[in-house]
Amino acid sequence: MSRMVDVEPLEPGAFARFGDVIEAEGPPDRLINEGLCGRWHDRARLDFADGRAGISLFRSEPRTLPFTLALLERHPLGSQSFLPMGGTPWLAIAAPDEDGRPGRPRAFRASGTQGVSYLRGVWHAVLTPLGGPGLFAVVDRIGPGANLEEHRLAEGWLIRAAP
Amino acid sequence: MSRMVDVEPLEPGAFARFGDVIEAEGPPDRLINEGLCGRWHDRARLDFADGRAGISLFRSEPRTLPFTLALLERHPLGSQSFLPMGGTPWLAIAAPDEDGRPGRPRAFRASGTQGVSYLRGVWHAVLTPLGGPGLFAVVDRIGPGANLEEHRLAEGWLIRAAP
């Protein structure tokens, strides 16, 4: 099996098994503020086993393609949503679970105005901005308990631009 | 009493009575992802009477200073958080409650990387981007019930740049 992963476009259908794409695509669900503002309503399947939702900010060093992905993580107690605030394109990288370990990952290229919400328990890579340092708002579970499971790969995956 | 309101800088202390400024200022609360990412942790007092938190997107027409503010609103059942995704500066406008009506408003100039969370029940203006159309992620209460109270002013306030 090739250890190469080609970056693919971020499309809601392809991403649905891992979570939700949060973007202002298509017509808004409603117009508010006397017609001056569109609302794309409730676009992520937030799911917290306990605790509560909170808003944090992440600022991450950028990555450059190609790079080797050697670490994945998941959060058993809650969904985790990433909303870009700096306009930087980024990669949302997720993997199916295979007997408690991450399987072959997929790498989705998100624009600087596309957010993503990973479903609770979905394997994903750490935040991966492409270009300048990435500022993101993060909506995730706030509460006690072990909500981080990491898996370091014996052999990494080479994440690369589509040929 | 003058019906003029001068825009002021958005500073956490000045804004605290109305809510929280969500920004990556000062050192992060923790470093994650092997030191490559800073986390400013749990920066908003989210508060939902019932229902649950959800993530929506708003895209709003821009305003130009000066303009007349004639409508304020509040959400009795939950906090409402605005996170800019398009880099556009914007105004966070809030007002104290005076016997069930909004008092004199204050207008805070936010940068394109500053978010704001209005406390539950705080009077505020509708989304006010300055410049290009403003794309924002919004974290607010999803659920049934009347969570919008609007107050139209008989006489508006002129919101203007500081002289």
UniProtKB/TrEMBL annotation, chains A, B:
Protein name from the UniProt record: Ureidoglycolate lyase
GO molecular function: lyase activity
Catalysed reactions, as listed in the record: (S)-ureidoglycolate = urea + glyoxylate
Cited InterPro entries: RmlC_Cupin_sf (IPR011051), UAH_cupin (IPR047233), Ureidogly_lyase (IPR007247), Ureidoglycolate_lyase_dom_sf (IPR024060)
Pfam families reported for this sequence: Ureidogly_lyase
Assembly and oligomerization: Homodimer.
SUPFAM superfamilies on file: RmlC-like cupins (SSF51182)
Alphabetized UniProt keyword annotations: Lyase, Purine metabolism
